[in-house]
Amino acid sequence: MMLLGDVFPNFEADSTFGRMKLHEFLGDSWGVLFSHPRDFTPVCTTELGRAAQLSLEFSKRNVKLIALSVDGLEEHHDWSKDIMAYNNAEPGSEFPFPIIADDRRELVEELGMLDPEEKDQSGMPLSARCVFVIGPDKKLKLSILYPATTGRNFDEILRVIDSLQLTAHNRVATPVDWRPGDSVMVPPGIPEQEALKLFPAGVYTKDLPSGKKYLRYTPQPNTHQQ
Ligand code: BEZ
């Protein structure tokens, strides 16, 4: 099982963009590797359709998307055309990111992406809806796991990437439902005097019944702090 901070395996796989080695494919980019249970299924079609619509938003953030399921390359190529049609894309436009064909189930097993509750007609478990966000240092920054019956929200995946990229370069944390531009929080562990120096835009501390001064906000920094 992959833990946060682990170096993501530099696996080699066949994809709709050709044979790929993960680290070389990512280069200096961030990566989102996400699996789906099966090609030609309804929820997966809506998910990959949404991811394709948002692919420019991911590239703007220097993030490369990679999808994966236990189907083969031919199915991926045929299904991508359905997804583009579902999106009402211009006829002939290409699906914008690679889909890995893990029909031998090697990667889903190695990376713990299988859903033992969701099986195909022959009783073989399918891939769950996993999301792995990988940093430019190739380490796992975030993982989310959904069952087959619950589609993901790709706006949320963009939102967490905004938080991950901000907090990778600044000693801040983002609160519940944070959106870019909102105030951020000063993490516990930064002493008051240091916080004042680190955040020249100001630190606002909310008074609480406990008298403890842990709810500290500062405007979102725009620049790389470290
Ligand atoms: C779907 O994508 O619609 C789906 C796939 C497997 C199980 C349930 C739903």
UniProtKB/TrEMBL annotation:
Reactions accelerated catalytically: 1-hexadecanoyl-sn-glycero-3-phosphocholine + hexadecanoyl-CoA = 1,2-dihexadecanoyl-sn-glycero-3-phosphocholine + CoA; a hydroperoxide + 2 glutathione = an alcohol + glutathione disulfide + H2O; a 1-acyl-sn-glycero-3-phosphocholine + an acyl-CoA = a 1,2-diacyl-sn-glycero-3-phosphocholine + CoA; a 1,2-diacyl-sn-glycero-3-phosphocholine + H2O = a 1-acyl-sn-glycero-3-phosphocholine + a fatty acid + H(+)
EC number: 1.11.1.27, 2.3.1.23, 3.1.1.4
Taxonomic superkingdom: Eukaryota
Keyword Nucleotide-binding carried by entry: no
InterPro entries reported for this sequence: AhpC/TSA, Peroxiredoxin_AhpC-typ, Peroxiredoxin_C, PRX_1cys, Thioredoxin-like_sf, Thioredoxin_domain
Cleavable signal peptide: none
Residue ranges of every copy of the Thioredoxin domain listed in the record: 2-166
Keywords: Antioxidant, Oxidoreductase, Peroxidase, Redox-active center
Function: Thiol-specific peroxidase that catalyzes the reduction of hydrogen peroxide and organic hydroperoxides to water and alcohols, respectively.
Family: Belongs to the peroxiredoxin family. Prx6 subfamily.
Protein's recorded name: Peroxiredoxin-6
Lineage: Eukaryota, Metazoa, Chordata, Craniata, Vertebrata
